[in-house]
Each structure stands twice: as structure tokens, then as C-alpha cells.
Amino acid sequence: MDKDKIISELTFKAIRSSGAGGQNVNKVSSKVVLTFDVANSFALSDEEKELTLKKLKSKLTLEGILILTCDEDRSQLKNKSIVTKRFIEIIEKSLLVPKPRKATKIPRSVVEKRLKDKSTTAEIKQNRKKPDL
User: Fold this and answer.
1) pTM above 0.85, yes or no
2) In 3-state terms, the chain is what percent helix, strand and coil (to 5)?
3) What Cα–Cα distance (Å) separates residue 29 from each residue in 13, 22, 32, 132?
4) SS3 (DSSP) at 128
């Protein structure tokens, strides 16, 4: 994965932010919308695309486009850097391949301790009963 290639494929769009803020919100387009076409990306290999499409399935549109927005700051430039950083983190997480889990055997001492505890509990419960005469 080449970060510079991927960043060059990003498209940014500045729109007016919603919510409270008075005049600043009404006249300044500070909200940044980042879009990245995962399916048609040249920066990702076929395996990386497949892995990303599978892991980010819930965050993608039907066409395989990732859309991220940021309106945390009043500055458009800061919002752009924040959303780019967030995008890089998401892509890096999606490309991580988890290590296969190794099945481990339960130690004999643990099994013996469990069976001993069971038998002592059963014995205690038996002693609580009235004796059969």
C-alpha cells in the first residue's frame, strides 16, 4: 500500500456545515467530504481491494465507495487533514490480516482440579440430605 498514491486518488468536497454556529456556518463551507472508490483504485492490489471491501462492507456504498465527513473544526484545512488522517487509519486497519488462532490443549492438572471440585461439591450436597433409614 502506497499512501501517496492512495491520497492522490481521494476526492474532497467542501460543503456548508450543519447545526448551530450563526453567521460562520451560513457563509463558510468548512465541512469536508472525502470519497474514495475502493473497487476502482489503482493504488491497491487485487488482494488488498478484496480484503478492504470485505472488512469495510458496512461503511461502503453499493458501488464500493467509502465516504467520510468531518466538520469538527471551523477551518476547512484542518477538517481536510483530520478526515485524511482518519481515512489512512481506516485503510491501514482494513489491510491487517489477523494471525490464525492456535488451538491449545487444556492441561491435565486443570481438568483434575475441576473434577475434584465437582466431587467435593457433590459430596457436600449429599451430606445435606436426610439419611435413608
Assistant:
1) no
2) 50, 15, 35
3) 9, 13, 8, 87
4) helix
